[in-house]
Amino acid sequence: MLDILVQPRRNAVAAKKFFRRLLKGLRYVPRVIVTDKLASYQVAHRELMPSVRHRRSKYLNNRAENSHQPTRQRERAMKRFTSIRHAQRLLSAFGGISPHFRPRRHLLSAADYRQVMADRFAVWNEITGATTAAG
User: Domain ranges in the chain?
Assistant: First the structure.
């Protein structure tokens, strides 16, 4: 997942805005872009990046869609966002912070996992000045 942009509509104007924002930070031109089957993405792709291959698939986009699961869980716990602006503020920060506390657990032994989490919480405490315990 490269970016999250919350918008009230999913039309061609919103898709162009999303692609522009996405490409602004990149230092290279992507080879392939994978989206869901929303027609407005195709319109934006044709106008903004005609040289980039565009793949629209229900299944190729699973990795990006699954990366939104923590966001959906958070939204459900909060009983929905109060506004689009509030959602965008939360997701801008949440998207960068949440992977920090989600190591690839299946690749680690229990002792290694505890050490990795202790190190990550130490970094978090140093940056934020908070006192939390890994657990």
Answer: 12-102, 103-135
